[in-house]
Amino acid sequence: MRCKCGYNFSSEAAKPDKKFESFAVVRDRDYQAFLKSESRVLASKGEQAKMRAIAHSSELVGSLMECPQCSWTFFLKPGAPDLLFFRRED
Question: Which has more pLDDT, 18 or 56?
Fold first, then answer.
């Protein structure tokens, strides 16, 4: 995923000292389902079952990130394919 300024979030995301902050976003109406889904992840027996539970949980989570180079904020709604871009007002 790239910012409009060219910053590459994907290449930085795996680094332990990444330069940007990111936040998990869950819809209010999906919050209880998300908690139950995360409980299933913790209770899963075996790697395959755990991966399926994580995949299900991830469908309920979106992201909010701010570019460290230009300060554009990106919002990926849970389950949505497209990013929304926002710029902070002065």
Answer: 56
Q: Within a 10 A sphere around the Cβ of 37, how many other Cβ atoms?
A: 19
Cα distance between residue 25 and residue 75, in whole Å: 9
- pLDDT tens-digit series, residues 2-50: 888 888 887 777 777 888 888 999 999 999 999 999 999 999 999 999 9
**DSSP for the chain?**
-B-TT--BHHHHHTSTT-SS-EEEE--GGGHHHHHHHHHHHHH--SHHHHHHHHHHHHTT-EEEEE-TTT-EEEEE-TT-SSEEEEE---
Cα(78)–Cα(6) distance, integer angstroms: 24
